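Sample intake sheet
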Amino acid sequence: MVADNIRRRKWQQNPDAVKNNILETATAIFAKDGFSGARMDDIARQTETSKRMVYYYFTDKKQLYITVLEAAYAKVRAAENELNLEGYPAGEALIRLIGFTFDYHRNHPDFVRLIQIENIHQARHLATSDIISAVNLSAIAALERLIKRGSEAGEFHSNNDALELHWLITSSCVFNITNRASFQQLYGANLFTDDGQDRLKKLIISSIMQTVLA
């Protein structure tokens, strides 16, 4: 009873903290068990609140899952914005962006797993979220500005396409996580040591830069 009263006061005093705790817990469980396999009972049990409050804030499992996706994409885009790419010459800015993308995916495997799971579901949950669409279109717009700066400065050739470049950057960084287990089983763990990952990151940066430089 005392514990319940303490939790209830926390809900009343800091609802944002409660929602963030639910989202963090749900993110880990959805990434581990997928949308179909995740159970609201398990999510509620591992939070600092109650099942009733999980439903109060997020209505049902589908809405919670969509909110998890929205939060995951918002975090990566916010982290990109903190790079302050506008403050660097275009070539250096692109190198920073590629390196950041590699490191972010490596350090946030749950984010990559959520993307995998949503692809299994044919992106049907992504399709219902205007927030995710807007957030990710802003990333393409930022890359378009970067390409334009590089072209005008004579660093980049004029045929670069922002969407194609975003695909190229993302695909390499995602593959590094999604196929790690099978690749490591088949070919050994050398590429997934710290030194191996540093070499891969440099290789990806070098390869992509060669495609865009004038």
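Comment: The first helix runs from residue 2 to 13. The two ends are 69 Å apart (CA to CA).
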